[in-house]
Structures
1.
Amino acid sequence: MTIPISPADRVFVLTGAGISAESGLPTFRDSDGLWAGYRIEDVCTPEAWQRDPAAVWAFYSARRAAGKKAQPNPAHLALVELERALNLRDGGRFLLCTQNVDDLHERAGSVNLIHMHGELAKSRCERECGAEPVEDHAVYASLDEVGRCACGGRLRPHIVFFGEMPLEMDRIQREIARCTLMVVVGTSGSVYPAANFVHWARFEGARRVYIGPERPLNADAFTHVVEGKAGQVLPGFFHVEG
Ligand code: APR
């Protein structure tokens, strides 16, 4: 199966942990996923950070160590090719929004990219004092190694914890409102608001394609569900016309 993309199409892509699975990074909710070995409330909530920042940093330091070893796979590269085919110069016909905090999309070459759940390779002030997130690739062995902001606040991972607002939602909503094709790859459809994006696109009348080995929870909202691994389905999947 291929998906035709006409000169009139605007494409919004949403990716989840499944797109990085073939790079060797575990997903969250598969049987061998991260949430089988950790409890969300211990490592990924504002309360966990207040209670035990060392445990939170240990979790994200381990994610950083794993992320450094991973390389982009054919699915990441296929999305770069699609972005280039849709004209990088105007930058307006393609947007990639990822829930992933790894940097495999940008290392593959994606440019018009939103990390709605934050980025592993950055840290920011725990006090939300207004300082910008800083690049930080460190794998911390203990909390004593973690730096502080100029205001005195401890640096925390630049990650959207459960209960916090995802990043760049205004831009995401605007882009979904004008897309004509939504492509969703490798996400179980269990975390909101991302699981709702397909419903917003349906409201706008856009085509809606899901790619992944299993049907997501929100499968019924898609016009096409392609069951397969992203690295096998995505290369050659799009036929850009004109
Ligand atoms: N190709 C495509 N999809 C795959 C592949 C693959 N090779 N392997 C697994 N998948 C699919 C699974 O079938 C599953 O539907 O990827 C999906 C992963 O789902 P989750 O583990 O729930 O990950 P995700 O949907 O990205 O999680 C959303 O939850 O805890 C959080 O903040 C974290 O951003 C994350 C959010």
2.
Amino acid sequence: MGSDTEEIVQEVALVTGAGRGIGRAIAVDLAKSGRFVYINFRSNSEEAEKTLQLVKEAGGDGALLPFDVTDEKAAHASLDTIYDQKGGIDILVNNAGIRDDMLMVWMKADNWQRVLDTNLTGFYNVTKPVVKKMLSKRKGRIINITSTSGQVGQPGQVNYSASKAGLIGATKALAKEIAKRKITVNAVAPGFIETEMVEGLPLDQITQAIPMGRLGTAGEVAAVVTFLCSPQAGYITGQVIGINGGIC
Ligand code: NDP
């Protein structure tokens, strides 16, 4: 029970790529306990507006924060907006990601670079300035959305697998760098999750290869992310948590 004078501090979260799919589910789940959630996306503002509506319906509040995570200057300017409005970020979820699948022999430098720029350099562009502020506050949670592909390698996804494996390395290294300041850094590695990203894949064939015989849902990923943001998860850092129906 809090006293009348006790201030209730609303936590502030930033979820990149929260306009649709897994990012939307994470934004909504984090909002359930009254958090303020910044919803980042690249260009689809109609879908991002829907996410904001769902965040409010879930009991939280939020704001849209469009920027391209590959653009370092744009990312920094948007983060400054958050610091001006809210003074800090308690939770950062690096979720924005793309795939551009093809066999390595057909892969052009651009197919490689675009995926690495979004999935890995995007993490750097957003996380570095956030970490600097978290260090001085001695508080923070960072969750990176990687993939089964980054854990085991997926044919046709050399670029995507490399970017997601890189994210796992970055998670483990950063966790060790900042653990003493009570900031945790973890990765969540979904398998095949029902979102627009898996459209066009041979889903019947894929489902047969998943021990649980079904794709996962964005809500199942979001629940783990929210747990990693809870006080109960304060001693978990540098870990990669698979959500994949037993595929690896
Ligand atoms: P979706 O394609 O459904 O959504 C992607 C989101 O990321 C959109 O909101 C999109 O914005 C945003 N985005 C893409 N590029 C950028 C960028 N450069 N800057 C800012 N935002 C960007 O993807 P999922 O929800 O399926 O995937 C989310 C994350 O989960 C990704 O990192 C993905 O790699 C990972 N993942 C997904 C799996 C799956 O099976 N779905 C499995 C394993 C990992 P906009 O709407 O404006 O285009």
3.
Amino acid sequence: MTVQEKLGQIQQLTWTGDTGPGGGQTEQTEAAARAGLLGSVLNIHGARSSNSLQRIAVEESRLGIPLLFGLDVIHGFWTAFPIPLAQASSFDPEVARLDAEVSAKEARSEGVRWTFSPMMDVTHEPRWGRIAESCGEDPYLSAAFAVAKVQGYQGPADGSELSRTDRIAACAKHFVAYGGAEGGRDYNTVDVSEQRLRNLYLPPFKAAVDAGVATVMAAFNTIGGVPAHGNAHTMNSVLKEEWGFKGFVVSDYTGVEELIAHGFAEDGADAGRLALNSGLDMEMVSTNVADHGEALLSDGQITMERLDDAVTRILQLKFDLGLFDNPYSGESAAVAEPTAAARAASRASAARSMVLLRNEGSVLPLSPAAGSIAVVGPFADSTRLHGTWAGPGASRFPSVGILDAVREAAPGAKVTHAGQDLTLAVAAAAAAEVTVVVVGEDPGLSGEAAVRSDIGLPAGQEELIAAVAATGKPFVVVLVNGRPLVLGDWVDSAPAVLEVWHPGIEAGHAVADVLFGAVAPGGKLPVTFPRAVGQIPLYYNHESTGRPYNPAKPEEKFVSKYLDLADGPRFPFGYGLSYTTFAVSRPQLSRESIARDALERGETVEVSLTVTNTGEQAGDEVVQLYVHDVAAGIAQPVRRLRGFERVTLEPGRSTTVSFRLGAQDLGFWTNDPAGTFIVERGRIDVYTGTSSTTRDCSPLTVV
Ligand code: BGC
């Protein structure tokens, strides 16, 4: 390869060119493909159009190297699954695996070989719109979902299935700490200690790399003043050297160019130099490395060795994907719409992702034999509940409306409807046996560059709930949203509240499945719901202050609290109810102490507990395991999730759930930039229960 061909190979251009600052690249893209000066194209899909662009690269360019087509397939291609935050609420990584498998099949048949997913940014910021794409505030949960998604897209870690026609390459993004954006403002500054980087933000990425993720995407933020796109510590030292990552790192959209706006690079040449030398391998949309690479090489500012390394990593993936043998997609084999099986998978996933926040007096489940049901609110008949970044299917295939699905589920009932008009809604509610009030956020209010400073229900919706409540008739609030919301005090008196997030293409069916009890709700919150915006950031895995708030002494003055707000969240991490009730025993440990060197040799402590369905109906419970190192060289979070299992139990039945705690669970990363993980001697409190506020605890001592 000539130097220009190498520089071209590490360049990605967009096809439609209508989505960002680098817009309108279509002609440039085709010309670059013809000249053999292009490695990858994003935003192209459709077997026919991707094949015709591929033909230019393969048949007309000097070396005939095939292009790699990438697309954001985030929670579905044709078949929109629930948003990733919803999926995390299922506390069942199989949901994410299923989404990835269905997505891979559909996308691959339309020429896509690479998705920019999974997003695995842990975040404590509900104002940040991209929380919808994330798995919330916990690194352990996020890692479990990241692994399931990588496996669902790619197959096994050795890459042996990448060339199959139902597999695509995955991309772990955004590397790293993007979820730490100050004020929740997208793309904003992040300044974290090394220990927080390693204990909070990096674990999902490490897990994804261990699962064989083919690529990693750099993040838009700075980390301690150094933009992620020019960050040699995170890309070179941690990702490539420490973790031995063999795939390639792609920039985010114009992320290399943005090194200039960050105040980190002087000009395009400087940006290209900094990015490549820091470990970035492919530039998306902006063209700084390609434009200045030759001059940088001849000045000795970048090396041929580094350039060859980047090219090799990219070509290796093209070989692994089978692109050299089979660069085209079968045009007749395209899966042109959601299949019945894919819809069923999405519907089951959405129902599994719903979280019952309240159910006083057992309003839910609704009876399919109800005589009359009113379905009101701005999203009652919406067919646009796919969620942010739902793939090309979202514009072709409407989501199932909740109103229609309620009519289907209760064919004998008189089902009436009113939107957000208060008078009509009140009349409908007053005349019905029960009312379903569907409120929340339009999907456009979450996702990239969709940040809100006020995360309450949008204007008029609380008034609607209050007006329905004033009728004195039973009602259920169904929340459709892409982030945790600050819910008003109405929550404390609403008979029932069901969090359904943005449920995907089968939205209405899945909501009706849960409302009428065909599916028992069993999801749990993967994020804290604050009481007020002023409390943010508020998250369960926080450290203790020297003066923690004591609920037994609310009058204490010099403690960490707000004068004007009750302590703690509205709903905590890990919380969620069921239509039945469960009893869980205290955790039993297989031993009370364990030697540090035994842990280092790989020995573990078994933690077990019994969970019993004490109610009248079958249901799901998510048993959760947390640890707290009570005195550590680096103060540890008051709770850290280290295990979870979702179980289904018939009434009266019990099961024993066991977890294993090893060095990974009991130790932590220090502030050593070279990466030191230690397990200290001392007491660790081991908690089990059904939310992060559990008090069931058994002590374990590391000796
Ligand atoms: C987003 C990425 C995405 C890329 C390509 C960027 O704006 O931050 O998550 O993969 O665009 O569409």
4.
Amino acid sequence: MHALSPQTPSLIRLSDYRTPAWRVETVELDFDLGIDASELSARLLLRRDPTQDAPLRLDGENLQLLSIKLDGEQLPATAYRYAGNVLEIDGARDGSVLETRVRLRPAANTALEGLYLSGSREAGFLLTQCEAEGFRHITYFPDRPDVLSSYTVTLRADRARFPVLLAGGNPDGAGELEGGRHWARFVDPHPKPSYLFALVAGRLEVIGRDYVTADGRAVQLKIWAEVDAIDRCHYAMDALERSMRWDEQAYGRNYDLDVFHVVATHDFNMGAMENKGLNIFNAKCLLAEPDSTTDDEYRHVEAVVAHEYFHNWSGNRVTCRDWFQLSLKEGLTVFREQSFSADMNSAPLKRIEDVALLRRAQFPEDAGPLAHPVRPAQYSEINNFYTATVYEKGAELVRMLAGALGRDGFRRGMDRYFERNDGRAATLEDFLAALGETNHIDLMPYLAWYGQAGTPRLKARGHYDDVRHEYTLTLSQPASGGNGTEARSPLPIPVKLALFTRQGNMLPLSMDGQTSKETTEMVVVLDRIEQSFVFTNVIAAPVPSLLRGFSAPVILECDYTPDELALLLAHDVDGFNRWEAGQQLAARAYENLRDGTANDALLAWCDALALLFDNDAIDDALLADLLTPPGEIELAERETSIDPQRIHDLRQALQQQLAERLGVDALRQRYAALATHTNSELDAVSQARRRLKRRVLELLSLLDQAGACALAAAQYHAAPGMTDRLAALSVLVRCDAPQTVAALRDYRDRHAGNALALDKWFAVQVQVPGEPALARVSELEQDPAFTLKNPNRVQSLLGAFVRGNPSGFHRIDGAGYRLLAERLVTLDGLNPQVAARLATAFNGWQRLEPRRRDAAHEAIAGLASREGLSRNLAEIIDSVLNH
Ligand code: B3K
Ligand code: ZN
């Protein structure tokens, strides 16, 4: 082989996209599987684009090439070259067959990309992860999503060591081989991109269920897990069945193979993966049982099972042309998953949860050096772009489109999108075109949302004319970018609104003299820099409820008085906006405390919540959310010079004021009343009670720490399920209560051998606020159960610390930053994807107060100066440092 200059440019640009010069019509893969070494023969039927003249180039990384044949002839070494992770081959023509044989080293693969081992050499199993570019770690291939091929996969392995052999597609035979070996073959009738390829081999147990699709296909649903986990798969099976029915009803989408496999692994870089016919899940997103799974985790399992299943249409049948279109499948599928969860549970609570996540994870991303558009223009390492922006903001954009079209219009558009693009690799333009054309609306102005980074600001001001009885609402969007850097063109911003009387009733809305008694809510779309909307026949100065249901992902600036926000908090019938009014009011109350200004917002917030606390009509879970002010990360977003310790202290003080207003007796009584219903049932009422009980206990701990900790200790020991147990443990840890040590020891013994429960044991302990957290982290790193090799464990200790505990991580002496930088170096050598994700905790360092900023800068610059960082980590560090 001759060396070439690297073929892969360091920056991949959307504007450089070209259709593939070579496609692969059929792929036959034959694996001989082993833990240390696996061998794979690949037979590719090649198709050349007659309009292009490029040589055959295939991606391949870390492969040991054993043999290479073109059209049956062994290739001489002069006929191919390998450089820059690209294999270039001479002499191929349209219809040529390329055969390669490579050796892979699964047990040595700590990056968990390509073919790797989950668990121990003795008991673990083999599996693959290909999205985004893992297939090139398995064989030489044009590893890009717009090359769709038909796959036939044959697996061979020792029967005793690998009794279960699985690949995507339909089973197509299995049998015995000599020497205790066996084989199994799978044929996928649906052409797919290489990132959706998967195999699994090892000792796994299974639960099954028969399912018949709405269009009459009999499907075997099978969930596979290791023997100690298989009993925890039943909830996921139910969730899968609910997801399949829902997609049939809500979108008319049916499953399209005879089998659907789902596999749980403890070693996975992300939540789960939608491989065609063989979804693979991080165990934490699949396993569930009352004794070790919290209510939030149950809902998460349901959501992720649905998400991966929904990808079968939004992602697999219709895939992405290139990775810049990632949000085409991810934003859409998150939106579908959110709608499903809203239907299965409570719609307003779901909306609150989603928007809280957006603000906690996406807004800070969009406001700092890692900001990028939902459709980025360029990347160095695509795995760094599986971000809150692509997923969560992407889902908000689909939600806006769905809102603009209405329920039926959106369904019509989606039907068209699926039909027209079935079996294709599509773009965001294809998506907007299908939705728009079926509804005779030009949706292309929404493309601007996909191309701009930063959270847009929306200003609203109202003017009431008491002579004409007109209310004029003026909406505007500043022309500069959300993070102040780039100029923007105006975006279409749909604003769902209602007008309230000062008594808390909704007014009928009339615009341009058109009165309709029934209309109390409407959507206006701001698509210029500034626009005024005049409402007529308005009997008295109203209080507007704006952006209801969070109708656009913007930061709303409206000069409400505290009383107006309190009125919406008390009366808005839109559950989301009621919560939102409370959040705005709480943020103002926080500013009262911070600035030592008049306590008007603080009083209004506490008074309004005190009334709601005594209101039996309000749902317990909603009440729990209303009683929770914005988190420390959100509050930091409102500051220019961030001192995380001060934010923590002020937020504690804010909650203490609320607790005092509610009163220690009322809190104790409420706790006692809720505790009489203690159970581990999963119905909405039981879950809501647990949620409120936790919140009440937390508030109580701010007034009567010893009393609350005594209750927490009792709750811990009597808890019938994980939600109550972990809530109690969390209160004990945060208060550093004397009962904590015994409870932690008990938890450890009780859940010995349950990795997911142990993850929570690590995570809860590093939530202790402030300076002491770091010592706790260091101590826990010495625990024999801690390892940097397992992504979940890394997340539960280091991730929970750097992301979930701002006052602990951002120590003024910079020790938190140094610890993170040191661990990143080690982690990067093992698993670049996990290292890069953890490194995003440095995002936003420029806005820290000077001492912390300097310390963070030193740690990041130190990392940046190191040789040999992975492309993943280098890209994040470079962006964080230089943008
Ligand atoms: N599509 C996968 C994510 C793949 C991440 C690659 N680094 C899971 C999902 O979004 O459903
Ligand atoms: Zn997804």
